[in-house]
Each structure stands twice: as C-alpha cells, then as structure tokens.
Amino acid sequence: MSAVITASGLSKRYKSSLALDNVSFQIAPGRIVGLIGPNGAGKTTALKAILGLTDFTGELNVLGFDPRKQRDKLMGDVCFIADVAVLPRWIRVHEVVDFVANVHPRFDRAKCEAFLARTKLTANQRVRQMSKGMIVQLHLALVMAIDAKLLILDEPTLGLDILYRKQFYQNLLEDYFDENKTIIVTTHQVEEVEHILTDLMFIRDGKIVLDADMDAVGERFIEVMVNADQADAARQLKPLDERQVFGKSIFLFDGANRAVLEQLGETRRPSISDLFVATMKGTYA
Amino acid sequence: MKTFYWLVKREFWEHRGGFFWAPIITGGVFLLLNIMGIITAEVLGASHGIHFGASGGLHNVMSEMDAGDMSKVGFALDLAMYSATALLTVVLGFVVFFYCLGALYDDRRDRSILFWKSLPISDTSTVFSKIISATVLAPIIAVVVGIVVGMLQLLILAITLSFHGVNVWHLLLMAHPFRIMVNLIGYIPLYVLWALPSVGWLLLCSAWARNKPFLWAVALPVATGLVISWFGLMGLFNLPTTWFWKNIVQRGLFSTFPGTGSLFGVNGESIAHNVAGGPNMDFMDLTNTYQLLASPNLWMGVVIGCGLLAGAIWFRRWRDDS
Questions:
Q1: Which of A198, A202, A240 is nearest to A223 (CA)?
Q2: From A92, which residue of chain B is nearest by alpha-carbon distance?
Q3: DSSP 3-state of A33
Q4: What CA–CA distance (Å, rounded) separates B56 from A170?
C-alpha cells in the first residue's frame, strides 16, 4: 500500500521566522508516528499543513488529496483532535452527535453512543459545563466513531490528569487503532506514548532531525553506564550526551559499535525522553 | 443539501437567543406595554368619570359605516398588526448585524474553528449557511412571531372593548392577517437582495479581522467618510460627501435593517403616486414593495455584496485560529 502522507520540500514562513524549512518525509499506513519537538519547532505548523488549515510551499499529498485545495474532501478520511479542547462551548452533547452524524458520511452513531455510555457525559450537557477531561472524552468518542484512515492528535492530553491520560491512549489502542489506520501524535509527555509509537520523528527549528522506526532507533542509539575510571575512554568515542548518576556516567551514542560499548559497561536502549533531550541540546540557549 | 440543512440548524442552535428569543421577548414586552397602556386608560377613565362606549356612541358610528369606511377600518387594523412587526424588524436589524459580525470570527477566537474545519464541509457551504441564517431564517422567525403578536394585540383590544359592551368581533374579521403574512413573507426575498452588501461587508470583516471585527467594520467606512467630509469642508477636491455617507456608509452598514430598502432605495414619488392613485392603501403590498426591483441601487448592492461574500469565503479558507 502506498504512503498515507508524502511531503517533499515543505516550507512555511511566518513574518519573522521559518516554521518549516524544506521538510520531506513519508508516512506509511498502519503506523503510529510520534512527532516530537520543542515549543515553536514547527510541529503544529506541520500538522496544520497536513490538515489543509494553512498555506505552504512545496509538495504535499495526503491520502491522494492536496490539502490546500481539497480540505473538505480530505476531511472525510482524516480526523483531528487539537491541543486544547476546541469543541464549541455552547454546544450540547446530543447536538454535536446529531450534527456530526448528519454531515459525516463515515460516522457510526451507535459506536459513538456506546463510547459515551462509558463516560459520565449526559445528552443535554453543554461543553461549557464540562471539565477539560470530559471535553476530550467527548471529542474522542466522536472521533473514534469515524472510520477515518488518518488520525491527527496535537497535544491531545495537555492539561489532563493521569487517569484521563492513561484512559485516552488505552481507548485509542484497544478500540480504534488497526493496520489500516494511521495515527500522528505530537506531545510533550513523551513517556506516555513511548510504548505505543511505531515511528519517531524529531523536529527542530523547522527541520526533521530524526526520522526512524522504533526498531531502528533501538539499534542506532545505545546508552552505556560507565564507571568513572572508564569515562575518558567512553568520551573518546564521541558520545551524543553525557550525564552523571550515582557516581557513574551515562553516555548516549549514535551509531556506535555495540561490541565496543559493551566492554565499557552495561548497555541499554535509551528512553525517548533522554534521546530527545540529547538531540535538542542548546535549543533554547 | 442535508449537510446544508444541518449547517443552518447549527447556526440556529448557536444563536437561539438572537434568532428566537429576541423576537419573542420583544413581542412579549410590546404586548405588555399595550396592556399597561390599556390599564392606564381604564384607571384614568374611571377616576375621571369617563365611560368610554357606555353611551353606545361607538356602536352607532359602526352601524353607520359604509363599505369604504369598513375597508379603512380593516386597513387601520392591519396597520396595528404591522406596528408589532415594525418593532421586531428593528430588533431583527440589530440581531442580523451582530450575528454577521461574529459569524466567522467567534469560532476563530475560541478556536472551535479547528473542530468545524476537521469536518468534511467546504468553506463555501459554511459561509452560505451563515448568509441564509441571517437573511432568511432570522427574518422568517421574526415575521411569524410578529404576526402572532399582532393578532394577540388585536385580540386584547377586542376583549377590552367587549368589556365596555362594544362588540367589535366582526370588525376584527376586516383585518387581513393572511394578506399581511403573504406581504411580510413575500418581502423576505427582497430583504435578502437588499441586505446583501451589508451582510457581505460584515461577514468579510468577520472573516478577515484578527481582532475587533466591529471596530473594523464600522470605523473603516466612518473614518473614510469623515476624511471626505473634512476635505469637503475645506472645499478641496470637490468630493461627493453626501453621496459617500448615503451610499457607502449607510447602505453598507445599515442595510441589515428590513425596510431600509423601501425607505431609501426607491424613488419616493412612484410609491406616493401608487398609494394616492389606487384604492389600495396597503403600503406593504407586494406590488408596491417590489418596485424596489427596478432600482439600480438594489442591483449595484447585489453585485458588490457578491464580491464581498467571495472575499469572505476566501478569507475563511486561509485565516486560522492564530
């Protein structure tokens, strides 16, 4: 099956800054891609370009559509949950369900109502009376009832407590995701999505600095815990990053020889957040 | 078509206050003022010993009326019904004005545009649903409420008079509620055309302004008018000051008020002639009101309005929540 998203030479300039700088990437179907980057790196701009919400230069093909010209057709196959709860505050639960049921050809009303039945939401409740977690529950119920090919999540769990956050990803994996669907998620809470991602993309200053699937990440990046007496030897191998824990040094290597590293100390796969911090060093300096 | 119906329904949900409750409350207040007026008259009349209708004078007057007088009574009753609607149309003008200003701006401000735009709906249908809500849905509700209020008003009058022993029920039959309904509903297409430049301008500002659409929509034409007037005062450039205020500022901003087309749009003489020439005293008669169609002012407005609306759709396409 061909790629869900193909981008080549994507650029977007705001008045003072370059939000996307000649970005190219491909996303295949059946993947869960984490798009991770510091604030202002261009994550949201990239998502908005994919959704047809912003203009840009370069080539972008999403499910065979050009998002600039065919946003309305594209949205038949794409769903989107934005960083803050963006459901209109005046709308009631039954109104928004009625509305989406009647304008979206791929919406399954029974499914949506089944999801809602698991929550404390009531039909007559207005969005403005809900807590942030409840709004996200409602939005997720709507989105999961749509049989879309691509789901885009922009900081979906921002400001939610841990119960809502865990439940959010659990619902997504158990009741929604399958090999025909693709999910792109941006978040700062990297630890939470770490175990569900299949692909990882780091973005910094409008450029993609890392684009790999999780297996490749595990092979390419190695963390070694080294005793103080071997630290200098490890530094010779040009680690990406070094930090001290309990008198030992932890080095992060990119593409080093595993056999060599294993002689220095205990090796392991780095966590995404450590990898992220190492890659983004100096971003705010 | 189904999508469009739901889009308009969505507008109604969001603006139930302006579209539905505003005319109902206005009508209610109107009736209340009527009742208060009647009570005042009764109390004052009683304390001054005036017994209206007790002598049977009104009865005699009524029995002596000929057919011509009867049609005048009918016309007066119609006029009373129109008066209820007149108040509602002023309210409607304000509702439509502010609805248009917020229609493409409010959802950008609270960022719910990101939700609406994540549905498979084109920006053109979104903007059209707002135009139809403003120029068709809101007026229809106002007209229906207006007619009901007008009938209730006549009923209150009749009941009051019957307490005084005057039977006016058969007089009520001389009113023409159905003709009024046809005239008022029939006026709506004319309103759509006449209001188009205002609706277009307000929606354009609503779609374009990054903040404070009201200020842009009003300040821009008024400031331009002031500059032109200022040059005019100094006798410089010989700019058409009056023309600008009348045809740009007033026409552009206040055409959402129903009836302004009939007041300003048509050559006054043609209507006056018709009213004086024929026995038809119904100024709201469609043959009368549709004279507006002959006015180039109307059609210029339609053309400009369409241009402004195209601009609104374009901005709706590219402005996001930032």
A1: A240
A2: B13
A3: strand
A4: 84
Residue A13 pairs with which residues in a beta bridge? A18
Residue A13, C-beta contacts closer than 8 angstroms, at least 6 positions apart: A19
One DSSP character per residue, A212-270 reads: EEHHHHHHHEEEEEE-GGGHHHHHHT--SEEEEETTEEEEEEES--HHHHHHHEEEEPP
Q: Average pLDDT for residues A213-230, to the nearest whole number?
A: 86
Kindly provide the residue ranges of all beta strands, DSSP E only, lying in A49-198, ordered along the sequence: 57-62, 78-81, 150-154, 182-186
**Token code pair at residue B186:** 């029939």
A251 found inside a domain: yes
What are the pLDDT digits (tens) for B123-150?
A: 999 999 999 999 999 999 999 999 899 8
* A101 and A240 assigned to the same domain: no
How far is it, in rounded angstroms, from Cα B248 to Cα B261? 14
- A143 and A170 share a domain? yes
Q: Given a cut of 80, is residue B279 above it in pLDDT?
A: no
| Torsion (CA) B245, B247, B253, B258 in degrees, nearest 10 | 130
Distance from C-alpha of A38 to C-alpha of A31, rounded to nearest angstrom: 22
pLDDT at B316: 92
Mean pLDDT computed over A255-280: 84
Q: Taking an 8 Å Cβ-Cβ cutoff, which residues of chain B contact chain A? A: 2-3, 6-7, 9-10, 13-14, 107, 110-123, 318, 320
Residues A65 and A195 in one domain: yes
Handedness of CA B234, B237, B241, B244 (dihedral sign): negative
Between the alpha carbon of residue A156 and those of residues A36, A82, B70, B208, B234, the distances in Å are 13, 6, 71, 28, 61
Element (H, E) at A20: strand A18-27
Which position has the higher pLDDT, B244 or B216?
B216
Q: What is the pLDDT of residues A62-109, one digit of tens each?
A: 999 999 989 999 999 999 988 766 899 999 999 999 999 999 999 999
Mark out chain A residues that contact chain B at CB-CB < 8 A. Answer: 48, 51, 53-55, 71-76, 78-80, 82, 84, 86-92, 95, 98-100, 102-105, 139
Q: Is residue A163 domain-shared with residue A260, that is, in the same domain?
A: no
Q: Are residues A221 and A140 located together in one domain of the fold?
A: no
Phi, psi (rounded to 5 degrees) for A147: -85, 75
Both tokens of A23, joined, read: 């970005």
Chain B contacts of A105, Cβ < 8 Å? Answer: 120
ipTM: 0.88
Please report which confidence band the pLDDT of residue B276 belongs to, taking 50, 70 and 90 as the band edges: very low
| Per-residue CA distances from A197 to A41, A44, A84, A136, A191 (Å) | 20, 19, 22, 21, 11
